[in-house]
Amino acid sequence: MSTHEEAVQDIKKAKALLDAPVATSKKFFTHTSVSMIKSGIRIAAGLALAGGAWLEMNPYLQAAGWMLVVAEVFGIAEELV
Q1: Domain presence at residue 39
Q2: What is the DSSP secondary-structure string of 17-38?
Q3: How many domains does the chain contain in total?
Q4: Is the pLDDT of residue 66 over 90?
Q5: Region of poorest pLDDT, from 15-24, 26-35, 60-69
């Protein structure tokens, strides 16, 4: 069994370890970078939809593709503000 003084010393050592600054590692992917990658994929999908609809001359699909692109551009602006 440890004495009271030994227990106090152990607690002080543990507190010192917890209070010590921790070296943080840089994350490869941050929330913003993942969000930008998703936005890029969505913009590409919207452009593909609009472009494919242009070949078929379907104005509704063209509009849908362009609306997706515009909405995603606003999403990027929202993320950056």
Answers
A1: yes
A2: HHHSPPPPPPPSS-HHHHHHHH
A3: 1
A4: yes
A5: 15-24
